Amino acid sequence: MHELAITQAILSIVLEAAEAAGARRVTAVELTVGALTGYVDDSIRFYFERLSEGTLAEGALLRIRREPGEGRCRACGGAFPVEPPLLPACPLCGSPDIWITGGNRCLVERIEVEDGDPHPGGEGHPQRQ
């Protein structure tokens, strides 16, 4: 159910940006989703499709790029990949003084829209936000 809340936030960001740009419709949205967020791509797609019905984003292509989990040790400075379940200590030196440096975020990277000014053919001009 975490995906419902994050997808509502994603759609809000997308619609706000599209409206600010005077878009006629959103054609595609690109997301970066960290491996450590726990979000399931298929669930995000499902909720995006349902929540976007009747909005400028209805029918938009949703592209999701996965960002791998990464960590760094404050004691030895080593960097290492992190996958759930999280490690309680650095795999290089054993120190518990570690922090997550990647894979813990969800970002709207790009929004593609058709603008609101139709050209002579009646179709909007594709734009990228």
From TrEMBL:
GO terms for biological process: protein maturation. Keywords: Metal-binding, Nickel, Zinc. GO terms for molecular function: nickel cation binding; zinc ion binding. The keyword Zinc applies. Ni(2+) binds at H2. Zn(2+) binds at C73, C76, C90, C93. InterPro entries: HypA/HybF. It holds the Pfam family HypA. It comes from the Bacteria. PANTHER family: HYDROGENASE MATURATION FACTOR HYPA. Belongs to the HypA/HybF family. Involved in the maturation of [NiFe] hydrogenases. Required for nickel insertion into the metal center of the hydrogenase. NCBIfam families: hypA. This is Hydrogenase maturation factor HypA. It comes from Thermoflexus hugenholtzii JAD2. The gene is hypA.
